Amino acid sequence: MLPSQPLLHAAVFALAVLQALASDTFIAAVYEHAVILPDVTDEPVSPDDALALMNKNMDVLEGAIKEAAQQGAHIIVTPEDGIYGWHFTREAIYPYLEDIPDPAVNWIPCTDPTRFAPAPVQERLSCMARNNSIYVVANMGDKKLCNSSDPSCPSDGRYQYNTDVVFDPEGKLVARYHKYNLFMLETQFNYPKEPEAVTFETPFGKFGIFTCFDILFHEPAVVLVSELQVDTVLFPTAWMNVLPFLTAIEFHSAWAMGMGVNFLAANTHYTSISMTGSGIYAPDRARTYYYNMKNEDGRLLIAELDSHPRLSPAFPPAVSWSSYASSVKRFSPNDHDFSGLIFHDQFTFTELTKPEGNLTVCQKDLCCHLSYKMAGKQEDEVYVLGAFDGLHVVEGQYYLQICTLLKCKSTDLNTCGQPVETAQTKFEMFSLSGTFGTNYIFPGVLYSGVQLAPGEFEVLNDGRLISKTRTTKPVITVMLFGRWYEKDHLKQDPQPPAFP
To answer: What is the pLDDT of residue 334?
Structure first.
């Protein structure tokens, strides 16, 4: 019997409501991949050998993509360099590159593989997306021929780009992004002439994409969020961890919170150069993450996210980052301040000598305030409050303002700022704030064992980073990591004088 018209309309309406509700959240996946690397050679291998190596990696990625789809994931991000690795000269990487067209061509490589030049990698990625009805995000190499009519054309007659691609659930190429901020070792690739702000729409929000080192700069990362208002950032990366601030899980989760976006970070896994740390991060906290320096295992992560986090009740309030810090007088004199290096930057420190208290440390225009209470002070552990206000110039140039509470490597104050992975001291409470000159502040807390503290801290609208409860694990680092993009092109400041 056919349903009556009112019943049919009700059924259609109910289905529409269900679909609308379903799009309020989505299931995200990222895969940390232990890349199968080619033999290191200055001479190019044959195209067949290059494809064979890439297929070995894509076999692994395809397994992760199938598993993610079976668990209901709508999108999966795979790592930077995840298909062929990173040990290449400009010539040696050439056999691994394909010509990736502008997505405006409306192309499904899986069903029309011969429309352009041979593209077996794009064809296979497209089929992975299509066969599993899932968005697939991957990183590969793009090549673009040029000639002498282009004054910027390289001498070998081609541009080579570190490139992210996105295929939708039908296998259509919907996004292509050429990495703008190349890391210093990426001599095999060219810089695109202009930064590309790449976005695409999905049933579960507006997405943007950038790669690894891009996260430290204004373009395209900040532009995508602040100007183009993406809901979710896709982030293939090959990230080498640097404590105390730039471990992947710590910095990426802090960036998601500071910028107010979902952030899907897929890292390569190669522990000999400290590559590990992937996660699915929301503006309020990490939803899931992976950090493992003990073995060479990859890992699939899956979590649910709000499609439009700015509309979520959990979305953090707007923050006036220097409001509290600018309204209070200095908590403590500077007669015990001393200096120390963190990743080549000269910080000003003051020691937490008592189990609880209020401290201030300043450097140039930045004053950092800390209120704290330890849950029992360990005699063999030293913590400091630190401030840095200056231009970082090693492995990239970028202006930083940082306030931090951190554990020193030993009781020798000369070790303060050196990498530390474990601690024993828990805190009953902490409150960290600073007189920042920028609104781009990334807040983070790192626990012993290089673990995050999801849901255990928050940022108040007056700029204080506070613990919600007693810390569940000992603390390595609490940070307010500020980026003052307008000052990136200044000449390096002379280092502040060392304290006697």
So the answer is: 86
